[in-house]
Amino acid sequence: MNRRQFLYGTTAVAMPVLVGCDNNDDEPIVIIDESYPVGPFGATSTAEEVTLGLDLTGKTAIVTGCNSGLGLETMRVLALRGAHVIGTGRNLEKASKACSSVSGKTTPVALELSNLDSIVECADTVTKLGYPIDILVCNAGINTFGELELVNGVERIFAVNHLGHFILVNRLMPMLKKAKDSRIVHVSSRSAYMQAPEVGIDFDNLRGEGVFDYWEAYGRSKLANALFSLELAVRLEGSNITSNALHPGLVQTNIARNAPIMLRKAFDWFGEYIAKTPEQGAATQVYVATNPSLNEVSGAFFEDCNAVNVIGDNFLFDKPMAEQLWSTSEQMAQGYLIAVSYTHLTLPTKA
Predict the structure, then answer these.
(1) Secondary structure (3-state) at 28
(2) Which residues of 118-128 are buried (b: 16+ CB within 10 A; e: fewer)?
(3) Reduced to 3 states, what is the DSSP secondary structure of residue 89?
(4) CA-CA distances (angstroms) from residue 114 to 153, 168, 243, 304?
(5) How many whole angstroms separate alpha carbon 28 and alpha carbon 194?
(6) pTM of the entire structure?
(7) According to DSSP H, which parts of the chain are helical?
């Protein structure tokens, strides 16, 4: 674990004072990108506040990982505003329990992102429902905080956080195209530019070929979320679909349930002082998914409800890397993609 990872991971939770006093010039600087619409909301805004007055009646949204944390709050608020929300959980029991806990129209669907057949079944189930998809929030994610694990020959964090959503988005593309206007929202993280490997996506280490570090693995997967969104925006240019990525903030969720005990205890002690609530954490993804001012915004990266630029060493907007990631993801997902016409390609059909 290098210094930057330590500061962002353990020290950011256990010793926030030290992070606040760190003046390392190498740390990226985040500024609002005023080339995009700048809204009135910020770090303390909630998902309810950013959707106040919106009527989403008649719209259909999908939220992956709806059973807890950001996903549950995102589903709750979208349903509150009138949307029909299809909520996915790792099994139907989890999804059903979450959907029944919120008011409004919801439909539970099972989705285990580490199981490629489950992704296909989920997409087929959603397609058979027949609703055009107006909003797709790729929210589900993991951090193992453990040793290297492979699923389908791919490092587990990368497989779940990126590859699973890559397949899901592709297979749902026909239903996204049926909506008048559709938005794909990728829940990335500041880890994409704070914890990723120094080279960005280390393509020669996605199958466990090299040294494994779970902090870097998580950062790599979150960078992949951002780059997938970027390349998708390019390929969907001129269509009715937009694609944007975001950092929700450090949020009090259960994603760290498998973290080392010191980190979990530190978060228990300091979390309320340094982290957002789920209501605040869900604000940015709900804002990106619904705000009318963003109708034509695509390929941006958002933090605290505004599009941002990140100054310093990072790969958030590296187009060649995004193209290579797309090609690599195609190879990894071979046999699980459907034929979809984008601006520059047609994906191969499942044999």
Answers:
(1) coil
(2) bbbebbeebee
(3) strand
(4) 11, 12, 23, 29
(5) 8
(6) 0.89
(7) 3-6, 12-14, 16-20, 47-50, 69-80, 92-100, 116-129, 156-158, 164-178, 191-194, 214-235, 261-274, 278-281, 283-290, 319-332
User: Cα separation of 330 and 351, whole Å?
Assistant: 14
Helix (H, G, I), strand (E, B) or coil at 123: helix
Amino acid letter, 233 = A
Residue 232, exposed/middle/buried by CB under 10 A (0-12, 13-18, 19+)? buried
Mark 264-291 as b/e (b = at least 16 C-beta within 10 Å): bebbeebbeebbbbbbbbbbbbbbbbbb
* Residues paired with 154 in a beta bridge: 151
User: Which tens digits make up the pLDDT trace of 245-282?
Assistant: 999 998 766 655 555 666 555 555 455 555 799 999 99
Q: What is the dihedral of CA 261, 265, 98, 175, to 10 degrees?
A: -70
Q: Which amino acid is at 176?
A: L
Other CB atoms within 10 Å distance of the CB of residue 208: 15
Give me the helices (H) in 32-185, please: 47-50, 69-80, 92-100, 116-129, 156-158, 164-178
pLDDT digits (tens, 9 = 90+) for 54-89: 999 999 999 999 999 999 999 999 999 999 999 999
DSSP characters for 101-118?
Answer: TSSS-EEEEE--TT-HHH
Residue type, 288: V
Catalytic residue list: 218
